[in-house]
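R.M. (postdoc): so does anyone remember the format we settled on? I'll just put the structure tokens first.
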């Protein structure tokens, strides 16, 4: 149910901060287990300029390309599910190399997470193209149908959590949701969180908590913990690494290619059970190739653009570097057929570094007097190596399969140049790692059960707990981890 006031609340077994995918997945699963929870959401049914103002902060770093952070989050019921594209894929097994858990620890929660996100695929249709490259399967949340013959995909918006589950929450006996209830501080003693302070109608209310789960988003989780640590003077939050190891997925157009779309369709279309919309195909390196070349994980999407290039304009250059293919194109050009312009767009994993971090501003505060975030994020040259190495391998594959030719962006090889942010470079939306999961307090904030180290009742959910990020969108894995936490709470807390 949606409650109207925070006056005279009972002590709930679980209190959750936030209503994004991580928080609502947890709440819905607790409901199935008949465990009551109180959800405190800072926003309302819509995002407003005033509500988004609380997310404003500063991006630092010479090679930082994070978008203005208040544009990448939604402070509203349903959270940032109102911004996500819906693109999903599970993390790969080797993405868990540094995690305190393995892929098989969250695999049991895949089917339920997929149902919550309205995914139909089981993601078992990856194709090994050769020993170095595999074509991988992605799926859009709430993708209705694919007409392969006409290469048309009909889909609706991805799952927006508040829209999808509001009626269920309104009817629920176990979920109690309070909107416009921003948590400004967590207070505790020794190793126990005892209550939270909530700002409502210009007044502060003290809400007692039994088990507290923070699900405010990839950097807001760290912000709330840092502020609570500072205001409590380390009374119960003593972690030295809150906010550190912050990461995101570099998104870049890293190369261009020429090919006939018909050739690409014939080669890639029918290999994947659920092909991507708009003639997009996605390739990733094998574990063997990553280990041999010492690179991180990466996904490279081949996007058809609206720009068509006449073959004649490329013949002279191609005859010099690729005579056989140039001759082929020359023959086609005489028939006045156009070549397709392909853009190779990557989502890459970057090294996890302690120096990339979320801190609190010393002189900039929101309307509640809480310091805004200062993000220090530097892209590493090793990510250039990952991008260029794997795209080179794809280029070799294009040649051997006679699919076309690929040109790689020059800035990937010139380490004296800054990272290019031209075109549709995109970043800052997959906030990862600021309350990372690990086995000890030296390099992590939460343990394998998402319990904050050295506390008895304080948990964190969301991508901020990811130890590393892999090269896939995080939402599916976020939901799996929330479901895993629900099982843990059922076994370990007093109802």
């Amino acid at each position: 149910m949606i409650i109207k006031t925070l006056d005279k609340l009972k002590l709930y077994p679980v209190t959750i901060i936030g209503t994004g995918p991580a928080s609502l997945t947890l709440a819905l699963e607790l409901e199935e287990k008949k465990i009551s929870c109180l959800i405190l959401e800072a926003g309302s049914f819509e995002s407003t300029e005033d509500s988004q103002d609380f997310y404003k902060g500063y991006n630092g770093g010479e090679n930082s390309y994070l978008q203005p952070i208040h544009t990448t989050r939604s402070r509203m019921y349903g959270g940032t599910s109102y911004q996500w594209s819906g693109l999903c894929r599970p993390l790969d097994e080797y993405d868990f190399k540094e995690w305190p858990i393995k892929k098989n620890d969250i695999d049991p929660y895949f089917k339920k997470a997929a149902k919550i996100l309205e995914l139909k695929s089981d993601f078992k249709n990856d194709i090994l193209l050769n020993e170095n490259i595999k074509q991988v399967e992605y799926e859009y949340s709430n993708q209705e149908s694919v007409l392969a013959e006409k290469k048309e995909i009909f889909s609706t918006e991805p799952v927006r959590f508040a829209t999808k589950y509001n009626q269920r929450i309104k009817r629920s006996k176990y979920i109690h949701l309070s909107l416009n209830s921003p948590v400004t501080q967590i207070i505790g003693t020794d190793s126990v969180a005892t209550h939270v302070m909530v700002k409502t109608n210009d007044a502060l209310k003290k809400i007692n908590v039994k088990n507290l789960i923070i699900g405010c988003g990839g950097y807001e989780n760290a912000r709330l913990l840092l502020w609570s640590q500072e205001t409590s003077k380390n009374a119960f939050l003593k972690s030295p690494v809150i906010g550190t190891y912050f990461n995101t997925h570099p998104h870049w157009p890293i190369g261009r290619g020429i090919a006939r779309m018909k050739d690409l369709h014939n080669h890639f279309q029918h290999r994947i059970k659920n092909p991507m919309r708009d003639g997009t195909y996605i390739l990733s390196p094998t574990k063997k190739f990553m280990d041999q070349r010492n690179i991180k994980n990466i996904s490279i999407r081949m996007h058809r653009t609206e720009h068509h290039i006449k073959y004649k304009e490329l013949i002279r250059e191609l005859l010099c570097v690729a005579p056989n293919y140039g001759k082929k194109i020359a023959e086609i050009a005489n028939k006045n057929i156009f070549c397709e312009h392909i853009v190779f767009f990557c989502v890459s994993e970057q090294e996890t570094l302690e120096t990339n971090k979320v801190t609190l501003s010393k002189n900039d505060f929101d309307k509640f007097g809480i310091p805004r975030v200062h993000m220090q994020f530097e892209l590493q040259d090793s990510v250039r190596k990952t991008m260029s190495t794997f795209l080179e391998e794809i280029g070799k594959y294009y040649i051997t399969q006679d699919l076309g030719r690929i040109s790689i962006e020059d800035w990937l090889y010139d380490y004296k140049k800054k990272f290019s942010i031209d075109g549709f470079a995109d970043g800052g939306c997959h906030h990862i790692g600021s309350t990372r999961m690990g086995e000890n307090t030296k390099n992590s904030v939460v343990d394998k059960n998402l319990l904050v180290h050295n506390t008895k009742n304080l948990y964190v959910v969301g991508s901020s707990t990811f130890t590393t990020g892999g090269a896939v969108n995080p939402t599916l894995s976020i939901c799996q981890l929330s479901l895993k936490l629900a099982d843990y709470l059922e076994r370990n807390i007093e109802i």
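R.M.: ...and that's the designed sequence above, right after the tokens. Also worth knowing: The chain has two domains: 14-117+159-248+353-379+428-492, 251-349+381-412. Confidence is low (pLDDT under 50) at residues 145-150.
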